[in-house]
């Protein structure tokens, strides 16, 4: 009987020890779960901050691209309007938008009229009418074309500098710091120029 009591006492002791060990493991697992939950939460926060930064950089890049494209469009319009001037012809002919075909057509009409005038009135054919711009208009056009060329060179040099420095081995982060912009903008710029 004493042996059975000792055996029962040992069994109870072993059961109690097993319960304590299981409880400690359960506590350890709960702590690990809490730590992992905190890590996941910190990771989600850092990803959210990173995505917000990327979104901000993308918006800045889109603004710069739209500004640049609107500037280029304005430059093209002004340079084309400066390049093609409608010839001076009589009032009844109205020039269409400055295209090469309308320019040729106007020149042909003007030459035919000069020939007709030369045949009918030789005195009037000696007189040649040329459109003259006053000096202020000429200077204004020259200033505008120089300004657009300077802006174009400045814009091209930014992109060319980024590409050249990257090809020389400078990191994207260093380029972003140098040009005071985001790393995503530099990455996109380099991808566009490959």
Notes on the structure:
It is a single chain. The chain has 194 residues and is mainly α. The chain has 3 domains: 58 residues; 62 residues, no CATH class; 60 residues, no CATH class. The chain is 81% helix and 0% strand. The protein has 6 helices and no strands. Helix 1 packs antiparallel against helix 4 and helix 5 packs across helix 6. The chain is rod-shaped and about 150 Å long. The termini are far apart. About 10% of the residues have low confidence.
Global shape: rod-shaped
Number of separate strands: 0
Helix content: over 70%
Largest sheet: none
Low-confidence stretches: 85-98, 128-132
Summed up:
The chain crosses the membrane at residues 6-24. The chain is an all-alpha fold and 194 residues long.
Keywords:
194 residues; mainly alpha; 0% strand
């Amino acid at each position: 009987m004493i042996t059975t009591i000792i055996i029962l006492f040992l069994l109870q002791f072993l059961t109690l020890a097993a319960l304590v060990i299981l409880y400690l493991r359960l506590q350890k697992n709960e702590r690990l779960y809490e730590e992992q939950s905190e890590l996941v939460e910190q990771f989600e926060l850092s990803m959210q901050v990173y995505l917000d930064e990327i979104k901000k950089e993308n918006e800045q890049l889109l603004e710069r691209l739209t500004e640049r494209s609107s500037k280029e469009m304005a430059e093209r319009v002004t340079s084309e309007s400066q390049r093609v001037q409608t010839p001076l012809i009589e009032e009844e002919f109205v020039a269409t938008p400055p295209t090469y075909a309308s320019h040729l057509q106007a020149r042909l009409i003007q030459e035919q009229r000069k020939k007709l005038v030369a045949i009918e009135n030789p005195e009037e054919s000696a007189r040649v009418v040329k459109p003259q711009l006053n000096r202020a208009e000429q200077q204004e056009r020259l200033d505008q074309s120089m300004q657009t060329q300077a802006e174009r060179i400045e814009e091209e040099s930014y992109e060319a500098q980024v590409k050249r420095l990257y090809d020389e081995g400078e990191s994207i982060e260093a380029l972003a710091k140098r040009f005071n912009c985001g790393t995503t903008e530099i990455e996109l710029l380099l991808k566009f120029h490959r």
